[in-house]
Amino acid sequence: MSKTFSRALFATTVAAAALGFAATSASATALAGWTVNNSIAGGGFTASLKSGTVATLVDTNTSQQVDCSVSSASGTAVNGTYGTGAGIAKITSVIWGSAATPCPGPLGSSFQASLAAGSTISINASTYSGGITSGSLSGVKVNLVGDTILGTCNAVISGTVSNVTYNNATNELDINNGAGLKVDSATNCAGLLNAGDSATFDATYKVAAPLSITFS
């Protein structure tokens, strides 16, 4: 075998090995991502307020707040591994308060709220540590109806919610003074809510069946 041929063969072998290593590294990178493990077949989930807690909506311009002791949510979190945490789970139905148990507000007012028709709230994962995923909610749009001293109040609140965490150990979705909401419109709301006001939301929901979100 000539020296020239040997050198060419050696160079080809080295190049092939390098390409193989690059491909392996790329494959490993591609496999990294967010993994959803849902115990419910079909990927559905339901959640309700953690026992002994309330969900609190605050208009940060008027400093008025509404507290709900009854709230539930449902949606989808489909098993799989995803390259991005955006929309890792979806909330398709939310209820705050009920006819039997409305949410009390200031000046003797009471409210109920639900997700606007056709709206879906995305649960977005951004960081992960020790079984806890941190992120946000986006696509929020809710219709708020209240009984106030002026009569029936109708308001629409939309935007995003920050400071959201999900704990695999407790199956709890916690929203800690989540900012990013805005009052789109408010009619006959006695000055408790006004169009253009900012709002925050605070609540802890417990998912009914085991659901985990991890990152690796």
What key attributes describe this structure?
single chain; 216 residues; mainly beta; 12-stranded antiparallel beta sheet; 3-stranded antiparallel beta sheet; 13% helix; 56% strand; disordered N terminus
In short:
Helix content is 13%, strand content 56%. Residues 1-30 have low confidence and may be disordered. The longest helix has 29 residues, at 3-31.
Question: What does this 3D model show about the protein?
Answer:
This protein is mostly beta strands. 13% of the residues lie in helices and 56% in strands. It is elongated and about 55 Å long. Residues 1-30 have low confidence and may be disordered.
Task: Show the helix and strand layout.
Layout lengths: L2 H29 L2 E5 L5 E6 L5 E5 L4 E5 L2 E6 L3 E3 L6 E8 L6 E2 L5 E6 L5 E9 L2 E17 L2 E17 L4 E16 L10 E10 L3 E5 L1
Antiparallel strand pairs: 1-6, 1-15, 2-5, 2-14, 3-4, 3-14, 5-7, 7-9, 7-10, 8-9, 9-11, 10-11, 11-12, 12-13, 13-14
Whole-number average pLDDT? 89
Shape: elongated
Distance between the termini: 48 Å
What structural class results from the helix and strand content?
mainly beta
Number of strands: 15
Low-confidence stretches: 1-30
Topology order in helix (H) and strand (E) letters: HEEEEEEEEEEEEEEE
